[in-house]
Amino acid sequence: MLPHQLELLSPARDADIGIEAVNHGADAVYIGGPGFGARANAANPVRDIERLVRHAHRYHARVFVTLNTILRDDELEPARRLIHELYDIGVDALIVQDMGLLELDLPPIQLHASTQCDIRTPQKARFLQDVGFSQVVLARELTLEQIAAVDAALGPRAAPGRAVLEFFIHGALCVAYSGQCYISHAHTGRSANRGDCSQACRLPYEVRDAQGRILAHDKHVLSMKDNNQSANLRALIDAGVRSFKIEGRYKDMGYVKNITAHYRRLLDEILEERPALAASSSGRCTYTFTPDPDQNFNRAFTDYFVNGRQIDIGAFDSPKNPGRPIGWVVRTTADHVEIETHDPATALANGDGLCYLDLQHNLIGLQTNRVERLGPGAEGGMRWRIHPKDAMASLKDLRPGTVVNRNRSMAWVRALERPSAERRIDLWMRLAAHGDGLRLSLTDADGCTGSADLDGPLEPARDAEVNAARLAEGLKRLGDTVFQAVSVDVAAAAPWFVPASRLNALRREAVAALMAAREAARVRPVRAPAVQPPVPYPDDVLTYLGNVYNHKARDFYARHGVRVIAAAYESHEEPGEVSLMITKHCVRYSLSLCPKQAKGVTGVQGTIRAEPLVLVHGDEKLTLRFDCKPCEMHVVGRLKRHVVREAQRQAREAPLRFYRTRPAPTAP
User: How far, in Å, CA of 21 to CA of 25, rounded?
Assistant: First the structure.
């Protein structure tokens, strides 16, 4: 990618969703392969990825495959073979976390450093650039100033080997620094670093202080709102970001279509304002719908830490989708509820998803089975009768005056189930005399050319003007190609009659020649060379937080000057209490109990201290410790015995090989 180009990077759960992401404006798509991806349930066969690659490359869009879990020793060779397969089908880059992969015999495929690499500092980003990563996915927690500092550390943007900065701009937020959460593995044996997170962060917790007093009851205090950087794109560009990433490899087709189109429109506005910048792929999109992020599942939105710490980043009441308010309850009966909408133009449909808050502020779902329009309401809205899917008796605290939200519109869902976008590349066409025949010459918006000849002799047209119009109209019929004609020039020196069948064949041949020229002009990304001699890693000691799970990763870090290399948490060499999560989110701050918040407040200053808190969910207890100097929170706990026992059982049945710093315990 060139330094003046911007990349909209969309997720794909499968190849069909990836193809629609491209159609709706993505410059690149990231997708999971058949294994070793950080979303275990979003795997795809190589043959499906190849289909996506072929489609994306028509627009000079790129396809990245996620291979971003930490690997055992016995998984390295299967991963190496998979990487060769992916390279052979034309995949443009791999997104990786495990540094052991850099010690293998890989094809010259471009490497991108996953957000799982925990890239928060200029030193870490520069190290990854110097060892051969061409793109680095920054931590979501960075501010604009921190992003700019990373950008400066990488050197001039046009310098050879300079890495591209990638940043998440939309979607679900992981509360932990990526790659620094072990709660799932400690409690269930399902490792987030191996693509199988149990999402303990979305659970409700009771928060207690050191004296046992309850500060919050059944609150989702580790659950974040969803990321939305729509208002910050220009500032992110100024800070150095060039790849804008949408989260969501578990998301459905409608989400990817809508959110991709939303950011495509925003970025295109910026490109119009700033002609020195350009998109990194070809074509312009038209849509049959108006993109709207609020229409998809979300937990309300936040821009997280981009503009500094905010107090309203959490979705503490519920991890569900609260939707948009559309009206209020007017009347309830034993079998239906009647509501009045705020806007008389709001239309409900059978199957719409509604919800409301009960008296305890819990979000209650109300799926419609059948709706009836009753007519104008008393307050100027429209009155509707709703027959819910569930029994009215089960809808707790539903009473007149209750505000009703809609979190799923069936009209919206159906609109995005149909074809909803076209992506076309501008094309200039010229038909002129060539010998005793004709030549059709094509030039696309990228400057690629293709031509085809129609041999003569040909019959002269009876009416040159009418004939020229007929030829131009026939040439415009580009059908299911990727092109749209913006200009068709039928030269006056070519007043020949051409049968429709021969004109169609000429057009198809010229388009095929142009597509071949586009493929020849497409530059395949290559792996950046590592700086020699090997640059030192920013630290000379790696704890379990370094996620070293195989001996090749250990060799990599040793080669880069690390003296002490601990084993990954998944190696079970940390049985005692450790930080199971490190996060920029602070529960004390969110509860207005941060000592920094109390500064200058008369009668309060000095009375609030960053003492530990305790989270309780059922039988599970986690301790919150606060490191105020870097303004971080550590969630502390220990490895559960049943997780160790299960790992020992699996090892007896199928011996596994991974990095340990001390001998494996003898199985009982």
Answer: 6
End-to-end CA distance of the chain: 55
pLDDT of residue 598: 64
For residue 216, what are the CA distances in angstroms to 135, 582, 595, 622, 623?
A: 41, 21, 18, 15, 15
Cβ burial 272-289 (10 Å sphere, 16+ → b, else e): eeeeebebbbbbebebee
DSSP 667: P
Closest CA to 557 of 180, 139, 117: 117
The pLDDT confidence band at residue 140, using thresholds 50, 70 and 90, is very high
* pLDDT given at position 373: 97
Q: What is the pLDDT of residues 89-105, one digit of tens each?
A: 999 999 999 999 999 99
Query: What is the percentage of the chain residues whose pLDDT exceeds 70?
Result: 98
Q: What angle is formed at CA 399 by the lines to CA 394 and CA 405, rounded to 5 degrees?
A: 85
Q: How confident is the model at residue 666 (pLDDT cuts 50, 70, 90)?
A: low
- As assigned by CATH, the class of the 320-417 domain is mainly beta
From the candidate CATH numbers 3.40.640.10, 3.30.70.980, 3.20.20.380, 3.40.47.10, the one assigned to the domain spanning 5-172+225-281+289-295: 3.20.20.380
Going by their DSSP bridges, the two strands 301-302 and 226-228 should be labelled as: parallel
SS3 (DSSP) at 281: coil
Query: What are the residue boundaries of the structural domains of the chain, listed by start?
Result: 5-172+225-281+289-295, 174-224+540-558+566-668, 320-417, 430-521
For residue 656, the model assigns a pLDDT of: 86
Please determine whether the domains at 5-172+225-281+289-295 and 320-417 fall in the same fold group of CATH: no
Residue 638 in tokens: 């220990």
Is residue 381 within 8 A of residue 327, CB to CB? The reply is yes
Across the range 460-480, mean pLDDT stands at: 92
The pTM assigned to this predicted structure is: 0.95
- For residue 363, the Cα-to-chain-centroid distance in whole angstroms is 26
CA-CA distances (angstroms) from residue 4 to 275, 432, 528? Answer: 10, 37, 19
